[in-house]
Specification:
15 helices, 2 strands, globular, mainly alpha, 2% strand, 356 residues
C-alpha cells in the first residue's frame, strides 16, 4: 500500500508540473515521465495495479465512444476506400522503415519489422514470440520508443502547430456526450455503464485486441446509434483516467533499458520521425480529396494509440469520432492481417499458435 501511495504522489506531482508548463496531455505524460525518472533515480520498486490501468482505459473508451454520431458514421462510409488505401500505404512505409533499420543496425529483419510496425506494444511483443528470428527484448525496446515518440511529438505538433485558439479543456464538444463535474447516478447512466462492462467482458472472451479500450468504444457507439441516452462523464474522471494509464506506462518503461541500446536508438527515433512525417503527408492528401480539416486527418492517421490521439482530439476540439474510426481501422488492420503476413513471410516458431 505504501508503494502505491508513493507512486500516486509522484504521478500527481508529475501531472501538476506538466499542467503548469502547459505541456500537451499533462495528466498522461506527467505521471509517465516522472515515475520513469523517479524509479530510475531512486532504484525503488514502485507499484501501480494493472486493474487501475484497465479502468482508465475503460473510461477513456467510454468518453471516446459517446462522441460518435450517425453523421460521422456516414462520413466514414464515404471515405472508406481512401481510409483503406491510406492505411495500407502507412503500414507499407512502416515495413520499409523496418527493412532500412535492419540493414543499418544488423538486427534480424523480423525483429526490425515487428519493432517498427505501429501496432499495440503487447500485441507486437506477443507476435515476436511466434515468429522465427524475432528478438522480443529488442522489439519491446523499439515499440516503447515508438509509443513514447508519438505520444510526445504528435500532440505537440497538433496543439502548437495545427490547432487554432486551443483552450485547455477536458470537455467533449458535441451533442452526443458531455463532461461535467458531477456524477450522474440516474438509472440510464447506471444501465449504460452496466452494458459497457458487459461489452468489456465479451471483448475479453473473444480476444478482441486491447479489449479494455476497444470494447467500451464499440459498445458506446452501438448504444449511441441505437438511441440510448448518453451519460454525463465527470471532468475529473477524464483526468483520473489519464493518470491511471500514464502511471502504468511510466512504471513499465525502464529508462536503463532505453539507454542500453544506443546504437539502435538513433535509427529507431529516425524511423519513427519518418513514419510521423509520412502520416502527415498522407493526411494532407486526404484533405485534398475529402472536406477534412488537417488536424482531424493527421490525428486519424498518426501512428499512435487510440487513447492518446483521442485525448489530444479532446484538448483541441477535433472530430473525436472520425479520428477514432481511422485509428481503429489501422489497429484492426495491423492486428488481424500483419501477424499472418509476417508469420507466412518469416515462418512461425514450432509449437506456437497451431490453433490458428
Amino acid at each position: 500500500m505504501a508503494l502505491f501511495i508513493e507512486t500516486l504522489i509522484v504521478s500527481l506531482i508529475g501531472g501538476s508540473i506538466f499542467n503548469f508548463l502547459k505541456i500537451p496531455l499533462p495528466w498522461l505524460l506527467g505521471p509517465l515521465v516522472l515515475i520513469m525518472l523517479w524509479k530510475s533515480a531512486t532504484k525503488r520498486s514502485l507499484y501501480w495495479p494493472v486493474g487501475l490501468r484497465n479502468a482508465g482505459l475503460v473510461f477513456l473508451g467510454l468518453i471516446i465512444g459517446i462522441s460518435f454520431t450517425v453523421e460521422t458514421g456516414l462520413q466514414i462510409l464515404k471515405q472508406l476506400p481512401l481510409i483503406v488505401l491510406a492505411t495500407v500505404l502507412t503500414v507499407s512505409f512502416s515495413l520499409l522503415v523496418g527493412y532500412v533499420t535492419s540493414r543499418k543496425t544488423g538486427l534480424s529483419l523480423a525483429t526490425a519489422i515487428i519493432g517498427s510496425t505501429p501496432g499495440g506494444l503487447p500485441q507486437m511483443v506477443a507476435l515476436s514470440e511466434e515468429v522465427k528470428n524475432a528478438d522480443a527484448t529488442v522489439i519491446t525496446f523499439m515499440q516503447t520508443i515508438r509509443i513514447m515518440s508519438v505520444v510526445f511529438i504528435v500532440p505537440f505538433i497538433v496543439i502548437h502547430g495545427l490547432a487554432d485558439n486551443v483552450l485547455p479543456t477536458n470537455a467533449i464538444s458535441g451533442e452526443s456526450g458531455s463532461v461535467d463535474l458531477l456524477i450522474d447516478f440516474s438509472w440510464n447512466t447506471i444501465l449504460f455503464l452496466v452494458l459497457i462492462l458487459m461489452v468489456v467482458w465479451l471483448s475479453l472472451r473473444v480476444n478482441l485486441p486491447t479489449p479494455f479500450l476497444l470494447g467500451p468504444i464499440i459498445g458506446s457507439i452501438i448504444l449511441v446509434l441505437a438511441g440510448f441516452p448518453v451519460p454525463t462523464v465527470p471532468s475529473f474522471m477524464v483526468i483520473a483516467s489519464q493518470i491511471c494509464v500514464g502511471s502504468y506506462m511510466g512504471l513499465t518503461t525502464n529508462l536503463r533499458n532505453l539507454m542500453h541500446m544506443r546504437k539502435v536508438l538513433l535509427y529507431v527515433l529516425g524511423g519513427n520521425l519518418a513514419i510521423i512525417l509520412f502520416s502527415f503527408s498522407i493526411s494532407y492528401i486526404l484533405t485534398c480529396v475529402y472536406p477534412l480539416r488537417l488536424i482531424d486527418a493527421f490525428l486519424g492517421m498518426a501512428p499512435g494509440g487510440i487513447a492518446e490521439m483521442g485525448l489530444t482530439a479532446l484538448q483541441v476540439h477535433a472530430d473525436i469520432s472520425l479520428i477514432t474510426a481511422y485509428q481503429m481501422f489501422r489497429l484492426l488492420f495491423i492486428l488481424f492481417l500483419i501477424p499472418a503476413l509476417l508469420k507466412y513471410w518469416f515462418g512461425s516458431v514450432p509449437g506456437k499458435c497451431k490453433e490458428h
